[in-house]
Amino acid sequence: MGRRHGIHPEEGDLHIPGVWTHPPGVRPRMRDVSDERTAKRTTGPARLREFFPVAAAGAVAGLLAAFTSLTVAELTAAGVREEARPVNAVGGAVIDRTPAPVKDWAIATFGTHDKLVLQLGILALLGLFAIVVGVSAMRFRRAGALAVLGFGLFGALVAAGRPEGAGADAVPSLTGAVAGAAVLYVLAGTGLRMFPDRPGPGERAGRRGRAEPPGSGAARTLGGMERRRFVVAATTVTAASAGAGLLGHRLNAAGRARAAASRAALGLPAPSSPAGAIPAGAGLDVPGLEPLITPNRDFYRIDTALSVPRVDVDDWRLTVRGLGVTRPLELSFAELLERELIERRITLTCVSNPVGGRYTGNAHWIGVRLADLLAEAGVRPPSRGGPADQLIARSVEGMTLGSPVETVLDGRDALLAVGMNGEPLPFAHGFPVRMVVPGLYGYVSACKWLTELELTTFDGYDAYWVERGWAARAPIKTQSRIDTPRGLAELSAGPVAVAGVAWAQHTGIDRVEVRVDDGPWTPAELAEEDSVDVWRQWVWTWDATPGRHTLQVRATDRSGETQTADRVGTVPDGATGRHAVVVTVS
């Protein structure tokens, strides 16, 4: 018979070109055409419908493996330190390697929520990675587990390789990775397979060696037993991981609670040199104007710490060492408080503050004179023959900020602050000790959670931000800001109070001027000066006329320098330009 009739040649058939024949008396075997039709039906949409349940199980397995990794790492970090948690370590590494313009954009866009956005982004990427690895593990079980181990190894290397990192910081990432790999390996081995074994001649191998007809194993759905095994395993993993995470959270919380208790029990001695009363007229009563003293809850916070360090004062130590130090010091917090304390009102400004920005604040600070402590260690400024021209301040989480030695020893009220606005420093602002140096941007002076002072040179050491493209020396630039009216405000014609603040720390503000549109500059009324280290409020009464107007402000400091109109971004040493707001008068 011809091939078109679907007859297979058997052994012993006579073969004539174009025609199949068979011996007399032998019945020809017909092809089972239904097998081909069945195979075709398992492709396309039907195959996808069979694929999705297994892929979903793989995604769940991957997410549970990631959850296990994080919770076990959280538990392990309780025995190391919170900064060693994988999300913190990887997030810190991202911050370390982010170019300055990108970092500046993140601060301008997200403000003080930039760290939360970064952490959520890391978790989202981790979740995506977990899903891909989990789905792949349903076919490549060992490869999926190895991928989890590799990701954990990456986290361990990042944690140990950070500026403040140590070998122990790698342990949480490694233990979490081992636990996550084990979970994925177990869940992927509960009888689930995305694809069947490769078929043998004439048949496909079914489960437990039973033969299946050709075409039936192209893809298969999860059986009831497989679902139950997977659900039981997944539920067990979820419960165990949640328990580990809860225990780790409680252990970490216990450490934070001890630090909080040490702060709550702390009573700061009265300063031997108080700041004195605020001069009458230094604070203007204008609605919408920033108050002269910034409350702690409103004080800006810009740093790289993904979780705020919480240090127990009983564990805190400060060391002073380095070039030109003839008497190295190591002080406890109690020993630091034995030194003379002074109180000063000082305005701080972040270098990331754009023109008209809010990253500046004024507070009462209580602390020890930095110059007195350095003199006790035998440090001399370069102008008196000292070999060190840079003071590196190092925080408990490894941040390094470099200040000019000559500047901190020139007589200004540079402090190792322990109090802020009448209470111990808040944790977010550096408890138990931070540096405050009037006249310098925060990134070269205002080290929070201070633990070490090292004397060195600018040629010999680049601090954290200098390594990332910022200037090594950064005195604060004269700036002014309009607080009220706000941009795009709708006003009524007539008298309008235009008010704001101006600052030029350690130089002082002498004049503030305002103009409308392209009109002449008009002097504003200045509040009384508290000190050259404190911003000055100002107000100008404008007889507003209907229409759309641009209000602009500029300040002149005591050295005679007036704010430039040239707009420059914050990198590498602070923004320049004049603040302006657009309003509509009706």
UniProtKB/TrEMBL annotation:
Domain Oxidoreductase molybdopterin-binding: 306-465
TM segment ranges: 51-73, 116-136, 143-161, 173-195, 230-248
Signal sequence, renumbered to the chain: none
Pfam families: Oxidored_molyb (PF00174)
Keywords assigned: Membrane, Transmembrane, Transmembrane helix
Taxonomy, superkingdom: Bacteria
Biased amino acid composition, Basic and acidic residues: 29-39, 200-211
Region (Disordered): 1-40, 196-221
PANTHER family to which the protein is assigned, alphabetical: SULFITE OXIDASE, MITOCHONDRIAL, SULFITE REDUCTASE
Protein's recorded name: Sulfite oxidase
Species of origin: Streptomyces cheonanensis
